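Q: Sequence in, structure out?
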Amino acid sequence: MGRLGTEKGLSHKTGAEQRREKMPTVLDGDAGPAPGKFAIVVSRYNENITGKLLTGALETLRAAGVADSAVVVAWVPGAWELPLIALQFATGGEYAAVICLGAVIKGETTHDEHINRQVSLSLGEISLRTGVPVAFGVLTCNTLDQAIHRSGGNVGNKGVECAEAALTMVRLLAKVRQK
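A: Exactly. Output:
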C-alpha cells in the first residue's frame, strides 16, 4: 500500500514536500508600517460625537506609529461637505489615505437619507477614481444614543475602525503595487 491514502488517489507527498511547492501569494495589510501621510476630514455638525470619532482615529494612527506630523485634520461644516475636501486630499498626491468622519442623525424628515446616500456614494467614487483609500466613518444613526454608542460607547468607536481600515488599505496597496 505504500504511504497512507495513495490507493485512493490522495497526495502521497509528505508535509515538508508540500510546503516546498509553490503556494499562492497571499497579500494583506494587517501588519507592518503604513507609509505616507493621512488626511482626516471631520464634520463639525454633531461635534460632540465627531470629536470622539476623531480622538479614536488619531489614537489609532499614533499607536500604529504614524507621527502627528504625518496627519492633517480638516474640519468641515457638515457631512455634506466631506466629499469635496476628501477629493482635494485624494487628488493632491500627498496623502496615502483619507479618513472621513461625521454623524448624521435622523430627524423628523428624510433629509438625513439624502445626505447619507450622496455622501456615501461620493466618497466611494473618490476612492475608486483616485486609487486612494477613503475610509467611510460617517455614522448614520436613528437616534443620538446610537451615535453615542458608536463613538466610544458600548458598540465601539467607528473612528478607530476607520483608521484601522485606512492603515490596512495603505499597507495592502503598497504590496499590490509592488507586484
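The first strand starts at residue 37 and ends at 43.
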